[in-house]
Design brief:
The complex is a heterodimer. Chain A is α/β, with parallel strands linked by helices. Chain A is built from 14 helices and eleven strands. In chain A, helix 9 packs across helix 11, helix 11 crosses helix 12 and helix 12 runs antiparallel to helix 14. By secondary structure, chain B is mostly helical. The chains are: A alpha/beta, B mainly alpha.
C-alpha cells in the first residue's frame, strides 16, 4: 500500500473531499518545503494543516497573524530570570515542526519578512545567537483572497519561498451534506487522531524521496515548461530556476507517496499549477482582460510536448 | 456562445437580403428623388468627340474669353488675334459645337477685309434691314448719325428676339461701321465696333455653354443605382462610351454608402453556406471537432518516427510502434502523456486497449524507472503481437 493511500484512508473520514490538498501537503512535507493555502474562510484550511501535523507525530504550533504582531512574538526573545539572575531564551512558536500561520497577509511586512527568512534559512538569530529550527520544519500559511483592507500582500520574492500554493475550494454539494450530517463525528475523530507515521519513519521517507529516479527527459520537460512561462507574451515575471527545482522536488515526493520510485510526465503536469501559480505575474493589460496565472499554466501545458520517445 | 454566433450569422444574412430587396424595389424611386429640378437629366446629345478634345476646346474658348475681356471694340480683337479666333471657330464648327451661322458671323467679325460691301449685303435676307442699310447709304452726314443709331437699336431688337441670325446681325453691323468710316462719323463707327464686340462675346459665351452642356450630357443621368453592386450604391454612368470626359474627372460620383448587400441571385450559394455553418455548429455541439481531428490526422505530430527508434530498448520501440498504429484510430496529441493517451484509448473502447495497457505499463517502467529486463521485453512483444492480430 502506498504511503498516500494509507494516509488518505485514515483522514478521509475527517477531511471530506480534501484528497488533493492532503497529497500536496504530504508531498511538500517530504520535499522539506512550505505551503501556502489560499481560500475563503470556513473551508477547513486550519483543520487540514492540524490533521497533517498529527498524522506524522510532529509538534504543531499555530500563529494567528495580526498587524501588531512583532518578529519577537514569532521567533522568541531573551527574558530576565529573577531566580537565576540571567537572561534566558524564551522560544517563539517558530520552534516547532509544523507551524500553521493563519492569515499570513495580516501581519506587517516586518514580521512577514522575519518569518519568511526563518523559512528559507531554517535557523533564526536572536540577539546575536543563531539557533537552528526543528527538523522537519514546515510552515503552512493560509491567506484569504477576498479581503483587501488591513492586509499586507506578500511580495513576489517572498511568495517564491513557498514550494506550493494550494487553492482550497468549496466542497461539492454531496460533500457539503456529508460534512453537515457528520460534523460531531468528524470533530471527535479529529481529536482522537493518532499518528500513523513516526518521526523516524518520516525521516526515512524523506531520505527515500531523494532516491526517486528522474529521467533526463523529465528535466528537459520541466525546463521547457518553466522557460515557457518566461517567454509567454502575457507574463511579466515567469518561473525562476527555483521554480524548476521545486517542480522536480515535489514531483519526486508525489511519485513516492503514490508508491513509485520514478517520476513520470503526469506528475509534472499535476504539480505544475500549485508550484507555478504564485510565481507567475501577469502583465496588467492582460490581467484586466481576465487572464490569470492558471490560464497561462494551462496554456503552456497544452502546448509543451511531453518527453518522447 | 455558439448560439450567439448562429444568431449573428442569421442577422447578417437577414440584413443583407433585406437591403438587396429594398435596393431592387426602390431603386427607381431613389433615382427620381435625387434628381435636382432644372439640372440636366435626360438631355440627349450626339457626342462624337473625345473628352480630351472637348477639354481642349473649352480651354481655347477660355483663352478667347480672356483676350476679348480686355477689348471694348472689335478693332482691338482684329488687331490682336483674329487668326487665332478663326482657327478656334473652324475647330468648333468641325466638332459640332459651333453652328454654321455663328461660324460665319465670327468670320465676318474677325476678318472684315475678306468681304466687300456687296458680299456683306448679300448675306442679309431680312428686307427691313436691307431697307435700313439702303437709307443709311443714301443719307447725308447730318442725318446719318441719327439714322445709324436708330438702325442699330432696331438691329439689336431683332437680334435679341431671334428674328435675324448671327450672320445677318454681324454683316449689318459691319456695313454700318464701314459706312460710318466713309462718312467720317466716328461715334457711330466706334459704337458699331462695340456692338460687334458684344456679338462676338455672346457667340463665344454660347459656345462655351454648349461645350459644357455636352460634357454634362455625356454624364447623362445624375444618379443611378448600379445593379448588383454591393459597395457602390449611387454612381454616375458616365462611362457608357468607355471613357471619361476629363482625365481625373469621374463624373458625378456621389457619396458611397457602405453596407453588406448580397444579391438575390446568390440565394442558392447563401443557402449552401448557411447549411454548412449549421452543420459545423451541430457537430461542435455534439462534441466533435472535425477541424481539429483533420488537422491532427494531417500533422500526426504526437507520433514518433519509427526509424528514430533503432537504438532504444525494445519496450520503448514497441510502445511507439503501437502508438503509430493506434493513432490512426485515436489521434495522439503532442502534449499528451503516455497515461493520458492510454486513458483515451480505454475511453474509446478500442479493442486493443487491454494489450496497449500492458505495453504502456512496460514502457513506463523502461523509460522512466530505468528497468530493463527480458520479462518486460517479452510482455511487450506478446502484447504487441496480440494487438496486431486484432
Amino acid at each position: 500500500m502506498s504511503m498516500l493511500r494509507k494516509i488518505l484512508d485514515i483522514v478521509s473520514e475527517i477531511l471530506i473531499e480534501r484528497e488533493y490538498e492532503i497529497s500536496l501537503l504530504v508531498a511538500t512535507l517530504l520535499s522539506s518545503g512550505h505551503a501556502l493555502m489560499e481560500g475563503v474562510p470556513g473551508i477547513a484550511k486550519t483543520l487540514t494543516a492540524k490533521t497533517i501535523a498529527r498524522l506524522f507525530d510532529l509538534e504543531f504550533k499555530r500563529i494567528q497573524m495580526t498587524p501588531d504582531l512583532l518578529p519577537s512574538d514569532i521567533l522568541g526573545s531573551y527574558v530576565y530570570n529573577q531566580k537565576t539572575g540571567e537572561f534566558e531564551l524564551r522560544q517563539g512558536p517558530i520552534f516547532a515542526n509544523i507551524i500553521l500561520v493563519d492569515e499570513i497577509n495580516r501581519a506587517s511586512p516586518r514580521t512577514q519578512s522575519a518569518l519568511l527568512e526563518a523559512m528559507q534559512e531554517r535557523q533564526v538569530t536572536i540577539e546575536g545567537v543563531t539557533l537552528s529550527l526543528k527538523q522537519p520544519f514546515m510552515v503552512i500559511a493560509t491567506q484569504n483572497p477576498i479581503e483587501f483592507e488591513g492586509v499586507f500582500p506578500l511580495p513576489e520574492a517572498q511568495l517564491d519561498r513557498f514550494l506550493v500554493k494550494i487553492e482550497t475550494t468549496y466542497p461539492s454539494t454531496k460533500g457539503f451534506i456529508k460534512i453537515m450530517s457528520r460534523i460531531d463525528e468528524i470533530e471527535e475523530r479529529s481529536r482522537e487522531l493518532k499518528p500513523v507515521i513516526s518521526r523516524e519513519e518520516l525521516f526515512q521517507h524523506m531520505n527515500n524521496v531523494r532516491n526517486v529516479r528522474v529521467d533526463d527527459s523529465i528535466y528537459e520537460y520541466v525546463a521547457s515548461i518553466v522557460e515557457a512561462t518566461r517567454s509567454h507574451p502575457a507574463v511579466r515575471l515567469g518561473g525562476s530556476p527555483r521554480a524548476g527545482i521545486s517542480m522536480i522536488r515535489l514531483a519526486k515526493s508525489l511519485a513516492y507517496i503514490e508508491g513509485r520510485n520514478y517520476v513520470i510526465p503526469d506528475d509534472i503536469k499535476r504539480i505544475a499549477r500549485p508550484v507555478l501559480i504564485h510565481r507567475i505575474i501577469v502583465k496588467p493589460e492582460y490581467e484586466v482582460e481576465g487572464v490569470r496565472p492558471e490560464n497561462i499554466i494551462e496554456n503552456i501545458l497544452s502546448k509543451t510536448p511531453v518527453p518522447k520517445p | 456562445m455558439r448560439s450567439k454566433i448562429l444568431t449573428l450569422i442569421l442577422l447578417i444574412l437577414l440584413i443583407s437580403t433585406t437591403l438587396q430587396i429594398y435596393e431592387k424595389t426602390y431603386a427607381n424611386e431613389i433615382y427620381d428623388n435625387r434628381h435636382t429640378i432644372g439640372f440636366p437629366q435626360n438631355i440627349t446629345y450626339t457626342i462624337n468627340i473625345s473628352s480630351s478634345e472637348l477639354s481642349e476646346i473649352i480651354n481655347q474658348l477660355k483663352n478667347i474669353d480672356n483676350i476679348t475681356s480686355s477689348c471694348k471694340n472689335i478693332n482691338c480683337v482684329q488687331n490682336i488675334s483674329s487668326s487665332y479666333i478663326r482657327s478656334v471657330a473652324n475647330r468648333l464648327r468641325d466638332e459640332g459645337v459651333l453652328s454654321n451661322d455663328a461660324y460665319d458671323a465670327i468670320n465676318i467679325l474677325s476678318n472684315p477685309g475678306s468681304s466687300d460691301y456687296k458680299d456683306l449685303y448679300s448675306l442679309i435676307n431680312d428686307p427691313e434691314i436691307r431697307s435700313l442699310l439702303s437709307q443709311l447709304n443714301t443719307s447725308d452726314i447730318q442725318k446719318f448719325a441719327e439714322l445709324a443709331n436708330s438702325s442699330m437699336n432696331r438691329l439689336m431688337e431683332m437680334y435679341v428676339s431671334g428674328r435675324i441670325s448671327y450672320k445677318e446681325y454681324a454683316a449689318a453691323l459691319e456695313l454700318i461701321k464701314r459706312l460710318a468710316l466713309e462718312k467720317n462719323v466716328y461715334d457711330i463707327y466706334n459704337l458699331a465696333g462695340e456692338r460687334e464686340m458684344d456679338l462676338l462675346r455672346a457667340i463665344i459665351d454660347r459656345s462655351y455653354s454648349d461645350a459644357l452642356l455636352k460634357m454634362i450630357s455625356a454624364s447623362k443621368d445624375i444618379s443611378l443605382i448600379e445593379k448588383g453592386s454591393s459597395n457602390k450604391i449611387f454612381v454616375s454612368q458616365n462611362n457608357m462610351s468607355g471613357s471619361n470626359l476629363f482625365s481625373g474627372f469621374e463624373g458625378l460620383r456621389l457619396v458611397q454608402i457602405m453596407f453588406p448587400s448580397i444579391p438575390l441571385t446568390m440565394i442558392l450559394e447563401i443557402a449552401v453556406v448557411g447549411v454548412l455553418i449549421t452543420l459545423i455548429i451541430m457537430l461542435l455541439r455534439l462534441g466533435v471537432n472535425p477541424l481539429e481531428k483533420i488537422s491532427r490526422y494531417i500533422t500526426n505530430r504526437g507520433v514518433i518516427d519509427i526509424s528514430r527508434l533503432s537504438n532504444l530498448p525494445t519496450p520503448i520501440k514497441i510502445y511507439w510502434m503501437a502508438v503509430s498504429i493506434l493513432s490512426k484510430r485515436v489521434p495522439r496529441y503532442e502534449n499528451e502523456t503516455h497515461r493520458e493517451y492510454l486513458r483515451k484509448i480505454i475511453e474509446n473502447k478500442d479493442p486493443s486497449s487491454q494489450n496497449f495497457s500492458k505495453i504502456t505499463e512496460v514502457y513506463e517502467l523502461t523509460k522512466y524507472a530505468g528497468v530493463i529486463n527480458k520479462d518486460l521485453e517479452k510482455t511487450a512483444e506478446e502484447s504487441f503481437k496480440e494487438m496486431s492480430r486484432r
